Amino acid sequence: MSEHLRIDDKDEVRVLTIDRPESKNALHGPLRSELCAAVAEADRDEGVRAVVLTAIDPVFSAGVDFKQLDRGPGETGSPLDITPASALRAMRKPVICAVNGACVSGALEVALSCSFIVGSERARFADTHALLGVVPTWGLTALLPRAVGVRRARQMSITGEFVDAFEALRLGLVNHVVPHEQLLSFTLGLAARVPSHAAVGEMLGLYARGEDMSVAGALAAETSHSLGRSYDLEAFTAAGSATAARMKGAVDDRSL
After folding, report:
1. Where does residue 166 fall: left (phi above 0), alpha (psi -120 to 50 degrees), or beta otherwise?
2. Taking Cα atoms as reference points, which of 149, 66, 151, 57 lies closest to residue 105?
3. Single pTM value for the model
4. At residue 71, does pLDDT exceed 60?
5. Domain ranges within the chain, ordered by starting residue
6. Which CATH class is domain 5-193?
7. Tens of pLDDT along 145-162?
8. Beta-strand (E) ranges in the chain?
9. Transmembrane region positions (predicted)?
10. Where is average pLDDT lowest: 25-29, 104-108, 193-197?
11. pLDDT (average), residues 113-134
12. What are the pLDDT digits (tens) for 211-252?
């Protein structure tokens, strides 16, 4: 059992809910350790095909708890060692972050480390590291500009300004904005659409590798990954037929 993290299974989707509302869901040492352990366990569990990360209202998280800088079990002295953000980036399964309110600094790094983000209409995002006189160590300067562009990332980090949910959608920081009361159900529905194929993890790995490459390098990596692979033609054909049937009504059948 985790003291500050609820863990629930919804069919093949594991829901991790940060539960420390009395401290604005701030990430103190024990919670960081619980989150790292839960992420690793979900990655190992063959019965889990996707993870949803969210939090108890009214905020997602205020970031690292500067009032309690004690280290959690297993944490070391280096900020570059295992953190919730690095644990999420190491996942071989998709993690959808469902942001229900304010998501600040370290929490923003956690959200950016997920596969993608769904925001409630109440979601707000900010980087306050500079205002506090500290520098990010969980990946923000690498991840935020890739999400919103380097110029807007600089502005957010230097000023500490908040970006609301709809501006975050416009910038590409989040994939969807939904009514607050529909956040979890919408995100679970999205997670349920993830197929239970090894190809999902492989594609996530290719996307991760490609972030550090030129277009030519990423294309070569994809080609290299596929060399020598064999496919079950009968299974491929059956999957194609099932996918076409599932998409019927959503797109013009003539485009398939």
Report:
1. alpha
2. 66
3. 0.84
4. no
5. 5-193, 213-253
6. alpha beta
7. 999 999 999 999 999 999
8. 5-10, 13-18, 50-55, 95-99, 102-104, 116-120, 124-126, 163-164, 176-178
9. 95-118, 130-148
10. 193-197
11. 96
12. 777 788 877 877 777 776 666 666 656 555 555 555 555 545
Residue 64: Cβ-neighbour burial (10 angstroms; 0-12, 13-18, 19+): buried
Q: What 8-state DSSP symbol labels residue 155?
A: H
The distance of Cα 256 from the centroid of its chain, to the nearest Å, equals: 30
Dig out the tokens for 49 from the structure.
């095909």
Q: How far apart are CA 255 and CA 252, in angstroms?
A: 6
Edge-to-edge strand list for the sheet holding 102-104: 102-104, 124-126, 163-164
Query: Which pLDDT score is estimated for 247?
Result: 53
3-state secondary structure of 224: helix
- Residues 6 or more apart whose Cβ sits within 8 Å of residue 144: 108, 112, 127, 153, 156, 157
Distance from C-alpha of 132 to C-alpha of 223, rounded to nearest angstrom: 45
What angle separates helix 140-148 from helix 150-159, to the nearest 10 degrees?
130
Q: Which amino acid is at 65?
A: D
- State the Cα–Cα distance between residues 102 and 24, nearest whole angstrom: 9
Q: Give me the residues paired with residue 98 across strands.
A: 118
Q: Which amino acid is at 183?
A: L
Identify residue 128 by its one-letter amino acid code.
T
